[in-house]
Amino acid sequence: MTDGRPSARKQRESLFDDAERAAAQAAAPLAVKMRPRTLDEVVGQDRLLVAGSPLHRLVEGKDGHLPPSSVILWGPPGSGKTTLAYLVSQATDREFVELSAVNAGVKDVREVMERARRELAMTGRETVLFLDEVHRFSKAQQDSLLPGVENRVVTLIAATTENPYFTIISPLLSRSLMLTLEALDETAIRTVLDRAIADQRGLGDRVTVSPDAIDHIVRLGAGDARRALTVLEAAAGAATSLGRDEVDLATVEQAMDRAAIRYDREGDQHYDVTSALIKSVRGSDVDAALHYLARMVEAGEDPRFIARRLVILASEDIGLADPSALQTAIAAFHAVAFIGLPEAGITLAHAVIALSLAPKSNAVIKALGAALGDVKAGLAGPVPMELRDASYSAAGRLGHGKGYVYPHDQPGGITAARYAPEAVRNREYYQPTRHGAEARYADLVERIRAALRGDEPGE
């Protein structure tokens, strides 16, 4: 017989479990201790957290909406993917199982599915399977997830830093709700750090952190909350070991063995270092260019900003001397947009080296400048009649298109003709250099201009 109270043995087991959990929590890294407990504590993902959003409905399980059978969280490291998965399980009292595709396999997945099936049948309690780094699973391993997802045995939340459309099989994608997370901005990282400094789960105000130390930690975090908290924890530990109650810039530098770069992204250093990078690439000094790139990357500069400047440089300072330069710069821009730091630094270095060593020409920007100068000076004039639109019925009566010679019908594809308005008929804006691939354009443009004047046949 029992009076409904737990037995002494169960009480001892419960106390032991509580003590074990408390010890594990005390030994946990700061990033784990400070993991948000509610959606209200999540920062930097406002777009995903608005009321009525799919994520809110998934967490609340209200309004008759069943949770999706699969959710894919795509975002950079430290953006909150694990946190969101944990909150989904906690908010609705589901069983939470975490696997990493780095070391888990099909056997592990099947074991989780079987336990989830038994739990659902015996207690009615649902299971959330959080699978981190899902892109590391092979096609066959991803296939093993489908039965459990299809039959709603588990709510699968898969996290990835790679583009899911390239790394996740179509059947899983088609059964998934895709949520894209952004890298945390500086404001969000500062909020995370301030909370960790003050909260009793974290440092509990046992140390203070100077403003310049916070700035450096934010830069080192580079949009990754986990990394920023790891740096803060290391710096606080270094200060405590030295008997200090303040974390200053020198302590952070010592703890991480990384000097703080004097670089204000809103001030002179931002513009000076950016200018030095561009001028070094323009001057073909690949080593100086890499130095300035490293300073910008180390300081946490937005890699997309650097990539945009390289795209501009490719046309302004290289142009047709190496037509592939613009392709390289644009490829770098697209790559850093979905890679992020620190790996994006490699892609930027690739582009900086290629553009530094490319032959240089400013003929493109000079040509545009000369043409714009004439237009601004009023040298426009009417479009020649033979070039005007002749596609509508009344155009012929107006003389539009009369006398136009179709180049493809002519030998060499070029014939003597007048294309520019009379006011700029003899202007030659593009003056190619003899550098790199542009040398062949220099020869070509001379022949074409002569053919247009009627001096010789075009080739």
Compact summary:
The chain is of the alpha/beta class and 459 residues long. The chain has helices at residues 8-27, 30-33, 46-49, 54-60, 81-91, 106-123, 139-143, 146-150, 164-167, 170-174, 186-198, 211-221, 225-241, 249-256, 268-282, 286-298, 303-318, 324-339, 344-357, 363-376, 395-398, 438-453, and strands spanning 70-74, 95-100, 127-132, 155-160, 177-180, 208-209, 246-247. The mean pLDDT is 81.
What labels would you give this structure?
459 residues; alpha/beta; Rossmann fold; Zinc Finger, Delta Prime, domain 3; post-AAA+ oligomerization domain-like; 5-stranded parallel sheet; two-stranded parallel ribbon; 22 helices; extended
Shape verdict: extended
Tell me the name of the CATH class of the domain at 45-180.
Alpha Beta
Content-based structural category: alpha/beta
Distance between the termini: 106 Å
Stretches where pLDDT is under 50 for at least 5 consecutive residues are none
CATH architecture of the domain at 45-180: 3-Layer(aba) Sandwich
Number of helices: 22
* CATH 4th-level superfamily of the domain at 45-180: P-loop containing nucleotide triphosphate hydrolases
Give the quaternary arrangement of the chains: single chain
Tell me about the biggest sheet? 5 strands, parallel
- Kindly provide the radius of gyration, computed on alpha-carbon positions and rounded to a whole number of angstroms: 32 Å
The CATH topology of the domain at 45-180 is what? Rossmann fold
